[in-house]
Design goal:
The chain is mainly α. Helices cover 66% and strands 7% of the residues. It has a domain at 54-262: f41 fragment of flagellin, N-terminal domain (Up-down Bundle), CATH 1.20.1330.10. The chain starts with a helix and ends in a 7-residue tail after the last helix.
């Protein structure tokens, strides 16, 4: 069968293109360090790589959530611990002022101290992290407690749903607080939520009034209320510590998972560089040989055989 020069040329061109493409792909493997650079390289492996990338992105999001959650919990723990300290000082002052050895003048001076305690706690109740209020439930852009000096009373303007973060599929952890549970609202029926206990602000405002009016029996009653508030705060602080431990443990688990996923992803898509370089060199030699062979064949014509 007669083979035309055009058929020979087309065959040589086709073969050169194949060898050239193989060399270019080998070069890409070496330059990128990845053995999978396109779907055709390894369809099954690529699906695994994409799934692992998605899993790693999800772990990154969870870790960002945990970092934010720790920030909220640490700030909340600090604020609650400071409130506890202030209430402890208020209780010590109340114990002192309930003594028959104290007079009206001393109690009037103590009322000024209690007023200072009240405003310090009000400020702590409106604690923010990155511009968001941590004791406002999910209404984190609203200051949870507002003081009306004309009444006087403190109103809660947040809601009763604690702000949460996601730490795993279907698992959330509350890192904010329903401030009403901790501090209370003079406009709510606090007895429905914690029978027999006034909220912190009302307790301090009433104590201030009792001190100003030299009402010794009422001052002594305030001691029990302060004890109740201190008990609630200590429970909240302990709960915060427990949540911090939980987030710390989850963070460790995420780091272990990231290492596992990253290693598996590397196994699927990373190339053995030494092997890839040797493969590239082999394909370069094959390409050079194909070029030389093609050039020699293409120079031949019928005249060469006459």
């Amino acid at each position: 069968m007669r083979v035309s020069n055009k058929a020979i040329y087309d065959t040589l061109t086709y073969n050169l293109a194949n060898v050239s493409d193989a060399m270019l792909q080998a070069n890409k493997v070496v330059s990128t360090g990845k053995r999978i650079n396109r779907l055709s390289d390894d369809p099954v492996g690529l699906v695994g790589v994409l799934n692992l990338r998605s899993s790693l992105d999800y772990l990154d999001q969870l870790e960002r959530n945990i970092i934010m959650g720790k920030s909220w919990l640490n700030m909340g723990e600090t604020a609650l611990s400071q409130v506890e300290d202030i209430l402890s000082q208020a209780k010590a002052l109340t114990v002192s002022m309930s003594s028959d050895n104290q007079g009206a003048d001393q109690r009037a001076d103590a009322a000024v101290e209690v007023d200072g305690y009240f405003h310090q706690i009000l400020s702590l109740a409106n604690t923010q992290v990155d511009g968001r209020y941590i004791f406002a439930g999910t209404q984190t852009d609203t200051a949870p407690f507002a003081f009306d000096d004309s009444v006087p009373e403190v109103a809660y303007e947040g809601n009763d749903t604690a702000f949460e973060i996601n730490i795993a599929k279907g698992i959330n952890v509350a890192v904010g607080r329903d401030g009403e549970q901790i501090f209370g609202d003079d406009n709510c029926d606090w007895g429905d939520r914690d029978a027999g206990t006034d909220n912190i602000f009302k307790t301090l405002l009433d104590l201030k009034s009792h001190l100003q009016n030299n009402e010794v029996d009422d001052i002594r009653t305030a001691m029990n209320e302060l004890d109740n508030h201190l008990s609630t705060l200590r429970t909240m602080i302990a709960d915060t510590g427990s949540k911090l431990n939980r987030l710390g443990l989850k963070s460790t688990i995420i780091q272990d998972l990231r290492a596992t996923y990253t290693e598996r992803k590397s196994e699927l898509e990373d190339a053995d560089i030494a092997e890839a370089v040797m493969d590239l060199q082999a394909k370069e030699l094959a390409y050079e040989a194909a070029l030389a062979s093609s050039a020699k064949v293409m120079q031949m014509s019928l005249v060469d055989f006459i």
